[in-house]
Design brief:
The structure holds two protein chains of two kinds. By secondary structure, chain A is mainly β. Chain A has no helices and eleven strands. In chain A, about 0% of the residues lie in helices and about 50% in strands. Helices cover about 0% and strands about 55% of the residues of chain B. Chain B has no helices and twelve strands. The chains are: A mainly beta, B mainly beta. Chains A and B meet through strand 4, strand 5 and strand 9 of A and strand 5, strand 6 and strand 10 of B.
Chain lengths: ~120, ~120
């Protein structure tokens, strides 16, 4: 079974703090994603990475950065957390990289519920 | 840009009954895939069913089936013989283009199953 894990289920931070959310997948997947989930807004893509050290902006990248130094690990960084970044953050991965349309299953982590005070 | 619309924020169904969740999408692409995901309360999102746009036959997975109307850009999910464990938020998702796995999600439908 593919497993996607996230470093924390719940996180509380103060405004202005630097926040790291980590995601690890154990099936050698090429492509990894960070989504933000808010009520009534569904899942919105923040960033994704189709290879080590590669990244592409999603639909809402402002206020976020990412890092992928190893294939299995994809980190989301909030350089200076703000209250409007209070949300559920979901990590996901898929086997194939970019260049073609994939029918592969996208696997999700359990989510990190971040509260910024 | 592609959009996915789920017009029913909440639905409820009696146990053992059938319920249909609606999804419409907008795209100019000819090749794409559509998915339904289930997110139980406090649990991980999992894939329920997928449909390839080039296939005319509707996908089926046990009690879950879809009604895919390509011309109408409609992709509804039917859950038969509903069970208490089906209670969850359901997301419709569109995947197209060549960025493998990049998907656009609807806003979700919360399904309640009444005993």
């Amino acid at each position: 079974d593919v497993k996607v894990t996230q470093s924390s289920r719940y996180l509380v931070k103060r405004t202005g703090e630097k926040v790291f959310l980590e995601c690890v997948q154990d099936m050698d997947h090429e492509n990894m994603f960070w989504y933000r989930q808010d009520p009534g807004l569904g899942l919105r893509l923040i960033y994704f990475s189709y290879d080590v050290k590669m990244k592409e902006k999603g639909d809402i990248p402002e206020g976020y950065s990412v890092s992928r130094e190893k294939k299995e690990r994809f980190s989301l960084i909030l350089e200076s957390a703000s209250t409007n970044q209070t949300s559920m953050y979901l990590c996901a991965s898929i086997r194939e990289g970019r260049g073609y349309l994939s029918t592969d299953t996208q696997y999700f982590g359990p989510g990190t519920r971040l509260t910024v005070l | 840009a592609q959009t996915v619309t789920q017009s029913q924020p909440e639905m409820s169904v009696q146990e053992a009954e059938t319920v249909t969740l609606s999804c419409t999408y907008d795209t100019s692409e000819s090749d794409y895939y559509l998915f339904w995901y289930k997110q139980p309360p406090s649990r991980q999102m999992i894939l329920v069913i997928r449909q390839e746009a080039y296939k005319q036959q509707n996908a089926t997975e046990n009690r879950f089936s879809v009604n895919f109307q390509k011309a109408a850009k409609s992709f509804s999910l039917k859950i038969s013989d509903s069970q208490l464990g089906d209670a969850a938020m359901y997301f419709c998702a569109y995947r197209g283009g060549t960025n493998a796995g990049k998907s656009t999600f609807g806003d979700g439908t919360t399904l309640t199953v009444k005993p």
